[in-house]
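Lecture notes, part 5. Sequence design as translation. It can be helpful to think of inverse folding as translation between two languages: the language of shapes and the language of residues. The source text, in C-alpha cells, appears below.
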C-alpha cells in the first residue's frame, strides 16, 4: 500500500532513545501520539514503547492486523484507540496488500481487539478499491466498530495509487451521505466537505501542518509535513529545541497547499472552536459516548 517498505533498513532506535523522543515531544506540548510505521507490531518491544507513550499522551496505533490477534493482550492496556487497515473486502484486500489471508487475519485481529479497545477500520481510497467504499462502511457497522477514511496519496517512490477524479468525487458524496445517516464513519463531515470544496470547487481549506509533528523511524523530525518530505527527517527530536524550530519556520506559505487529504493533517487543520458542527462531532459526542460506555 505505501512505499515505505522500500526504504533501506536502518538500525532501529533503542527503547531508551524512543523514550528520549517521547520526552522531547511531551516537553514541546504534544498531547496525542499515533504510532504508524512500517508495521509497528513487528517491533518486539512495542508493548514497552506504548507503555511509555500511554503515560504521556493519548495513544493510538495503526496496524495491518496480521499480528494483532497474537499481540493484543500485550498492548491493550497502553492504547486509547486502535486502527486496523482494511482496503477492500476479502480477496481485494489480499490483492492490494500482496499477501493471501491478510483480510481474514485482520478481521480476526479486529474481533479480538474490540473486546478491550475502541477500534476503527482505516480505509485508504485508491483507484482499485473506491467502488467498495459502501461495503467497507457496512462492514464496520456489522463489526460494531468505526471506519476512518483517507485518500491515497501517490508518493514519488510508489506506483500511482490515487483514485480518478470523477470516481473519487462520487465516492466522497456517498460517504458524506452515509456519515449524515449515522453510519460509524470516524471522519468529520467537514473532512469530506473540505476535499469536495477544494479539489472540485476551488475553495481551499487552510492547511495547518504545524499542528502535527511527524517523526521518522530514526527519531528525526519530518518537516514541514509527511507528504512534502516523504518520510525523511533532519533533526533528531531530542537534539533540538522543537518549540524554537516550530516558531522559526514559515508555515504560512503552506496554508494553500491542499495537496493531500491525509486525515492526520487535514482533520486537525479543520478544527475550530467556533464551528459548532466540528466541536459537537469531535468533543461533545465523544464525551457522551465515553459516559455511555461507563454505564454499559
Ligand atoms: C502507512 S500505513 C502503516 C501502518 C500499517 N503497516 C498498516 O498497514 O496499516 C498507515 C495507514 O496509511 C495508509 N496508507 C498506505 N499507503 C497510503 C498512501 N499512499 N496514501 C495514503 N494513505 C496510505 C494505510 O492504508 C494505513 O491505513
Ligand atoms: S495539504 Fe498535505 S502536503 Fe500540503 S502542507 Fe498540508 S499536510 Fe502537507
Amino acid at each position: 500500500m505505501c512505499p515505505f517498505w522500500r526504504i533501506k533498513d536502518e538500525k532501529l532506535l533503542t527503547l531508551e532513545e524512543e523514550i528520549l523522543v517521547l520526552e522531547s515531544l511531551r516537553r514541546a506540548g504534544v498531547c496525542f501520539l499515533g504510532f504508524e510505521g512500517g508495521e509497528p507490531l513487528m517491533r518486539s518491544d512495542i508493548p514497552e514503547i506504548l507503555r511509555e507513550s500511554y503515560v504521556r499522551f493519548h495513544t493510538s496505533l495503526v496496524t495491518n492486523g496480521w499480528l494483532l490477534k497474537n499481540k493484543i493482550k500485550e498492548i491493550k492496556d497502553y492504547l486509547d484507540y486502535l486502527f486496523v487497515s482494511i482496503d477492500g473486502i476479502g480477496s481485494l484486500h489480499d490483492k492490494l496488500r500482496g499477501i493471501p489471508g491478510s483480510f481474514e487475519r485482520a478481521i480476526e485481529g479486529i474481533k479480538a481487539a474490540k473486546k478491550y479497545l475502541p477500534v476503527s477500520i482505516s480505509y485508504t481510497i485508491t483507484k482499485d478499491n473506491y467502488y467498495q467504499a459502501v461495503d467497507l462502511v457496512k462492514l464496520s457497522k456489522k463489526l460494531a466498530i468505526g471506519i476512518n477514511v483517507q485518500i491515497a496519496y501517490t508518493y514519488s517512490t510508489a506506483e500511482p495509487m490515487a483514485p480518478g477524479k470523477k470516481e473519487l468525487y462520487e465516492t466522497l458524496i456517498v460517504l458524506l451521505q452515509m456519515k449524515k445517516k449515522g453510519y460509524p464513519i470516524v471522519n468529520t463531515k467537514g473532512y469530506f466537505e473540505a476535499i469536495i470544496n477544494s479539489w472540485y470547487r476551488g475553495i481551499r481549506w487552510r492547511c495547518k501542518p504545524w499542528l502535527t509533528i511527524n517523526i521518522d523511524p530514526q527519531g528525526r523530525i519530518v518537516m514541514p509535513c509527511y507528504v512534502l518530505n516523504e518520510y525523511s527527517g533532519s533533526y533528531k527530536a531530542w537534539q533540538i529545541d522543537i518549540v524554537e524550530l516550530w516558531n522559526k519556520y514559515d508555515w504560512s506559505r503552506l496554508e494553500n497547499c491542499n495537496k493531500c487529504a491525509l486525515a492526520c493533517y487535514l482533520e486537525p487543520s479543520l478544527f475550530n472552536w467556533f464551528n459548532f458542527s466540528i466541536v459537537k462531532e469531535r468533543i461533545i459526542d465523544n464525551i457522551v459516548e465515553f459516559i455511555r460506555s461507563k454505564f454499559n
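The translated text above is only one of many valid answers, since several sequences can fold into similar shapes. Residues 1-2, 36-39, 62-64, 85, 122, 124, 150, 152-153, 155, 161 surround S-adenosylmethionine (ligand 1) (CB under 6 Å).
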